[in-house]
Amino acid sequence: MTVVIARVDIAVVRLPLVHEFETSSHRKNHLDHILVRVTSTDGVVGWGECACPSDPYYCGETTETCWSIAGEHLAPLLIDKPWEHPADAAALLAKVSGNPFARAGVEMACWDLYGRVAGESLAALVGGTAERCEAGVSLGIEPTIDDLLTQVQAHLAQGYRRIKLKIRPGWDVAPVRAVREAFGDVTLQVDANTAYPADAAPRLARLDRFGLAMIEQPFAADELLAHARLAQSLDTAICLDESITSQAMLRVALRLGACSIVNVKVSRLGGIAAARAVHDECFARGVPVWCGGMHEFGIGRAANLAVASLPGFVLPSDVSGSDKYYRRDILTEPIRARDGWVPVPRQSPGLGVEIDEEVVAAHTLRARAIRRDNVSVGLGIEGV
Questions:
Q1: Which residues, other chains included, contact 143 with Cβ-Cβ below 8 Å and sequence gap of 6+?
Q2: Between the CA of residue 372 and those of 4, 81, 87, 133, 384, what are the distances in Å?
Q3: Which residue from 196, 264, 354, 377 could staple onto 200, CB 3.0 to 4.6 Å apart?
Q4: Alpha carbons 117 and 137: distance in angstroms, whole number
């Protein structure tokens, strides 16, 4: 089966959040993600999502860099280039160094297109076996502890059984203690998003007594030795996110003992194939993984669910329902959780979801079409 892409559309789409979300670096009330639509010479369409943050806090990429890289460099590499499998498309995109969020969005669209042509779901194509995924929720830094407890209570009432709290220096021990005291033995973990200096081990050691499932990424991405020292000094497991940028970095981190749990993110790793490779290595080594999120819209969320259906994802993942974040997602049928579980889209080919193109058009800030004859810029994806 040969696929040839005739056109790539990219669009910056803004969705307001149901509830403002604050991490160790910034607070946000909306998200701007880039949607990617590829169209084959046979007229088959595939969708992807660059779920990159707008600002360079989580990583060096931003919405603006993804817009430039996807439009000026990645999309042109695909036009009129025949390929047999998404891995071949990924090889074409590999000419562009770095920029994993941009590459992930374009590669995702190729997987969706391929699945639609082949008549298979993405979950089946990657080898996923689970019919549903256990979903945890990630809660941001709130103005007060009472506000945080209100959020925890609301999500536990919705059936979620794992709570992840964002922490930073000055907002760590007190909120963790309050949640543990208020909600007993609920599965609880924390995520620092690199907020602590490498000498903050004594501060983080104070969290050891709260029975956390893990402490995620306390130090900078390249501070693997500091993570290894912390891991040796605590009973609580250390999980790495920002540090695991490739399969090679995974091997270094595991060799050093810098973590015992890995957060697998499609966007951070540069695509579905790379995320599956990291999963496969962890699975072979007996290292538990879970699927992290970037507040994806429905397209990226569906891709995460497909990846999270692989057998090594034994911990609750950040694949909660779309309605946790958005009153109106871009799908005709939003992804929803029930009793803390989310079904894996398997009934339809590709990502297994359908895009509400009217909603996309209504929320598009700018768009661009890249095709064989020219490059055009417009106010929305043509045909949407």
A1: none
A2: 11, 11, 22, 40, 20
A3: 196
A4: 34
| Longest CA–CA separation in the chain, Å | 63
Give every CB contact of residue 359 below 8 A, 6+ residues apart in sequence.
Answer: 328, 329, 330
Q: Which of 95, 164, 265, 324 is catalytic?
A: 265
Cα angle 166, 169, 170; round to 5: 95
pLDDT in tens, 100-133: 999 999 999 999 999 999 999 999 999 999 999 9
Task: Please enumerate in sequence order all residues whose Cβ is within 8 A of that of 17, keeping only pairs 6 or more positions apart, or say none.
Answer: 28, 29, 30, 31, 295, 325, 326
Among 28, 95, 164, 166, the active-site one is 166
Q: What is the pLDDT of residues 321-356, one digit of tens each?
A: 887 788 899 999 999 999 999 999 999 999 999 999
Please give the single-letter amino acid code of residue 126.
V
Phi and psi, residue 17, nearest 5°: -85, 145
DSSP of 179-214, one letter per residue?
HHHHHTT-EEEEE-TT-S-TT-HHHHHTTGGG--S-
Catalytic, 166? Answer yes
Q: Is 7 helix (H, G, I), strand (E, B) or coil?
A: strand
